[in-house]
């Protein structure tokens, strides 16, 4: 599309040309980082060639670990030319850092190859070194486990839940915490569980928050910085808990077990680091959780799926108790009664775009506008969109 002001791209074409998802463009628009240059008469977002430089800077600073708020400040402070030059300079350093990391992987591969040629006995530590190096790069690049997506999903529940107590405060009341207890949280996310209960945190407790995502840990540390409590933060995989045997009185895993590839390894590790009278609390969802929303979006277009959440959900309210009883006893299920009555379209779109699925691969800008209109019609006709919530917590005591 061309005009007197130059060439313009729809959001979908702009995203395709830049090699990013449409969700990314929409999200940066929402955060006032990358606003459209213009809007078409039909209301479509239009972006110019100059917007590629803006997007490059956002992605570069994000890669370097800047928060979106920090990126916004940096972008406001610099002029266009200096801005672009600074972005290129940062990108150069980022690439140099990645090249250094890849050289470590290459070095490990070369050493292993030499070992295979010259030694009769295999040194398996060499293979482990390669795996660790590659996994470190994979984890660093993994964008799914970031706080922005998590916040979009949490915000929908906090704003439109019919149960005004809230999930985090309800779950906290299921966990009797004694003075001086040692507590470990697996998959802590951005620390919301503790932030929502800041007015009743236990005295003299040692609370260790862990997550496989370094970005999540950084957000949790920032969110809890003003609380006068003994928090420790650690990047850690729940499948490989780096603590000694019998260290913790309480271990919490809030809506994260179903993301783990090897649940048995997690249960084994939890059992190992729990004290003899320790308790493991695992929050999860049931089959009916968010079913109205997921069904509607999956039926909206062929091949759209939330299979990562639905079909691949291997730790549900319906089967979680049986799985835990292989390692712990007794196991008690507590169900949380709640639902959603959503009265706005944008939070629904934010939720489905942040949830694991293939929307960004299947839907284009026109589809997203039609989906928004579908949500809008339901809300206008019914007053709200009703969505079932099916959540609970499993209390598992060490045998």
TrEMBL record:
User: Which keywords belong to this entry?
Assistant: DNA-binding
Task: List, alphabetically, the SMART domains matched.
Answer: HTH_MERR
Look up the coiled coil feature and give its residue ranges: none
Record-linked SUPFAM superfamilies: Putative DNA-binding domain, S-adenosyl-L-methionine-dependent methyltransferases
Q: Name one GO molecular function term.
A: DNA-binding transcription factor activity
Q: Which residues form the HTH merR-type domain?
A: 8-77
Q: Does the record carry Nucleus as a key word? A: no
Q: Return the Pfam families for the record.
A: MerR_1, Methyltransf_31
Q: What is this protein called?
A: MerR family transcriptional regulator
